[in-house]
Design goal:
Blueprint lengths: L1 H16 L1 H22 L11 H19 L1
């Protein structure tokens, strides 16, 4: 199901906002999802809290999306 949603989102958004922005946004979504799953300790994986350094990394990911989108 995830793969189908990923492909559909890419097919829909790439012609509208460009391939670079589409890929950047999709990767950012994956990074945020991974951070959330780490925070929750999902799927039996050891929990890893969002530290200030990890939060700074997430902020930089958002900044990257903004820069690509405006470029």
């Amino acid at each position: 199901v995830y793969g189908a949603v990923f492909v559909a989102a890419a097919a829909y958004s790439a012609p509208r906002i460009g391939v670079a922005a589409t890929v950047t946004i999709l990767v950012a979504g994956q990074v945020f999802t991974a951070a959330l799953l780490d925070q929750l300790g999902a799927f039996g994986i050891a929990q890893r809290s969002v530290t200030p350094l990890r939060a700074a990394g997430l902020v930089l990911v958002v900044l990257g999306v903004v820069l690509v989108r405006r470029g």
